[in-house]
Amino acid sequence: MKHSEDKGSLTFFADGGQILIACDKGHYWMIDAKYGEIAPAGEPAARIQISADLDRFGPAAIMALRQMPG
């Protein structure tokens, strides 16, 4: 992913409820975020309804969270 202002490469770091976005051109952003987990696909708990927080990002976000093992 690139930083549109200067074409710098972005790297994301997450620690609990905080996210650091670091640009290799010296810029950074810190974001307070909500932390959560969902059950992997195939587990009985995976049938639990997805929260509205996640659902608003659409099916691709849910699929990214439920990558099949292996």
Keywords:
70 residues; alpha+beta; three-stranded antiparallel β-sheet; 16% helix; 24% strand; elongated
Q: Would you report the number of β strands?
A: 3
Q: What is the 3D form? A: elongated
Parts with pLDDT < 50 across at least 5 consecutive residues: none
Given the structure, what is the number of helices?
2
Please give the share of residues in helix: 10-25%
Strand proportion, as a percent range, falls in 15-25%
Averaging pLDDT over every residue, what do you get? 77
Specify the structural class.
alpha+beta
How far is it from the N-terminal to the C-terminal residue, by CA?
A: 26 Å
Radius of gyration: 15 Å
Spatial order of the strands forming the largest sheet: 1-2-3
Largest sheet: 3 strands, antiparallel
Structure description:
The protein has one domain. The chain is built from two helices and three strands, in the order βββαα. It is α+β, with helices and mostly antiparallel strands. The model has no long low-confidence stretch (mean pLDDT 77). Strand 1 and strand 2 form a beta hairpin. It is 16% helix and 24% strand.
Question: What is the fold's blueprint, element by element?
Answer:
Elements: E1 10-15, E2 18-23, E3 28-32, H1 52-55, H2 59-65
Antiparallel strand pairs: 1-2, 2-3
